[in-house]
Design brief:
This protein has about 325 residues and is α/β, with parallel strands linked by helices. It is elongated. It starts with a helix and ends with a strand. The mean pLDDT is about 90.
């Protein structure tokens, strides 16, 4: 009889413990998302790709995770405040896209893991090395600086008599400065002369394009940054109106009417960022997760734009395109 009573007591305690545990609200992980160049009122392909990656791993937003979104709309002075806000909300991880976002997140917290999708984390000083990040930051690099030479090479093949190329960039951006130096090295090897067309704000774009005309630039490349992303349609229109062949680093520019782009498949990188977030949720430390380099690159050409500016794309370039917009 005593044995039965003991068993009943133990079973009762077990049931009470299970009920108490079931009544405890499940902690839903919170992800902070920091984007320097987009706007909450516009579609954001970067977070859409990230959400796709999360869904592939079984996360449903609003049920398994919460994403706190912050958009600086190319006003980089707002990024630090936004990063501090995410820290105040006690997010479990920050997904920072673009070098300015990484800088802001890095300065805002010493403890919260940061997953990145940006240009050159080693050259920017965000990680010790790709193989051993060594701190709270890890993620993916799109290797933009290393691709400057390939973009110039494709542009020269597309415009065979090309000798002078304008570079539209923001000199106040550390990441763009790294890309500019890489472009200068590549230009020398291709016997091209670069013209620096600086734009620190949207108000500088008209004067930058006027300077390109004065300098007799035969083509244009852009160095991606928040200003370039946020003023995408305007830049595409300015280049088309001046019949200036332009090479971009992301297919979104070409879909908006730009001539051509070559670069890492950004959607694939942003989708794979979800894998890092998942590993961190499961206890991995950023310092132990190597920064991943892109494996997918794409050349996109807009034939409609080529016709509009009076340019014939050489067959050897067209044959290498991953996507042709007609």
């Amino acid at each position: 009889m005593k044995t039965i009573v003991k068993l009943l007591v133990i079973m009762s305690m077990f049931v009470e413990s299970a009920l108490a545990e079931a009544q405890q609200p499940k902690k839903v992980p919170r992800i902070g998302y920091l984007n320097p160049g987009s706007s909450p009122s516009r579609p954001d392909p970067r977070i859409e790709a990230f959400q796709l990656g999360l869904r592939e791993l079984g996360y449903v937003e609003g049920k398994d995770i919460v994403i706190e979104r912050r958009y600086a709309e190319a006003r980089l002075d707002r990024l630090r405040e936004m990063a501090r806000d995410l820290v105040h909300l006690k997010v479990d991880v920050i997904f920072a896209v673009g070098t300015p976002s990484v800088e802001a997140a890095k300065d805002a917290t010493q403890t919260i893991p940061i997953v990145i999708s940006s240009g050159d984390p080693v050259g920017s000083g965000h990680v010790a090395s790709l193989a051993r990040p060594g701190g709270k930051i890890t993620g993916l690099t799109n290797l933009t600086p290393e691709l400057a030479g390939k973009r110039l090479e494709l542009l020269k093949e597309t415009v065979p008599k090309l000798s002078r190329v304008a570079v539209l960039w923001n000199p106040d951006s550390p990441a763009s400065a790294l890309r500019m130096r890489e472009a200068e090295v590549a230009a020398r090897s291709l016997h091209l002369e670069l013209h620096s067309a600086e734009a620190r704000s949207p108000n500088d774009l008209e004067s930058a394009f006027s300077a390109m005309k004065r300098e007799r630039a035969g083509a244009l490349i852009t160095l991606r940054g928040p200003l370039i992303v946020n003023q995408l349609n305007r830049i595409v229109d300015l280049a088309a109106n001046r019949r200036l062949p332009a090479m971009y680093d992301d297919r979104s520019n070409v879909q908006a009417g730009g001539l051509m782009s070559y670069g890492a498949n950004q959607a694939d990188l942003d989708r794979r960022a979800a894998i890092y977030v998942d590993k961190i949720f499961k206890g991995a430390k950023p310092a132990d997760l190597p920064v991943e380099q892109p494996t997918k690159f794409e050349l996109v050409i807009n034939l409609k734009t080529a016709k509009q500016i009076g340019l014939t794309i050489p067959p050897n370039v067209l044959a290498r395109a991953d996507k042709v917009i007609k």
